[in-house]
Design goal:
2 strands, globular
Length: 122
């Protein structure tokens, strides 16, 4: 979508879908893409209508999870891709920290993280 229409179009569609989903009155877990924090309007909408939880992990954790899932480095640029990932995460860290809660995921298995989330919303 970015390549075809650009980021502004993507953010507009993201906002429309987010508005529609948040209009649903039933409880839900909504996992957004990490770049939602880059759009102040969309992130503010999410923060105003939801309990927000930053599942905090280091660049190494993200990298290793992606590799285990079989995702190759973008364009085969593995040496630079990790540095870009680290820089991206550093640039977004203050934005992510605006979430209502933070759960550190390093060294935790999925059931442990799920339990931590459940405790926050109980």
């Amino acid at each position: 979508m970015f390549a075809l229409h650009g980021e502004a179009y993507y953010r507009r569609i993201e906002r429309e879908i987010l508005t529609r989903v948040l209009a649903t009155p039933s409880p839900m877990v909504l996992a957004t893409g990490g770049s939602i924090v880059n759009d102040p309007t969309n992130f503010a909408l999410l923060r105003a209508r939801c309990r927000t939880v930053w599942l905090r992990a280091g660049a190494e954790d993200h990298w290793n999870r992606g590799r285990r899932a079989g995702r190759p480095a973008p364009d085969g640029r593995e040496p630079h891709a990790f540095s870009e990932l680290r820089a991206l995460m550093t640039a977004r860290e203050k934005l992510y920290a605006r979430a209502e809660h933070t759960i550190e995921t390093a060294g935790r298995r999925v059931p442990q993280v799920v339990s931590a989330i459940a405790e926050l919303v109980a």
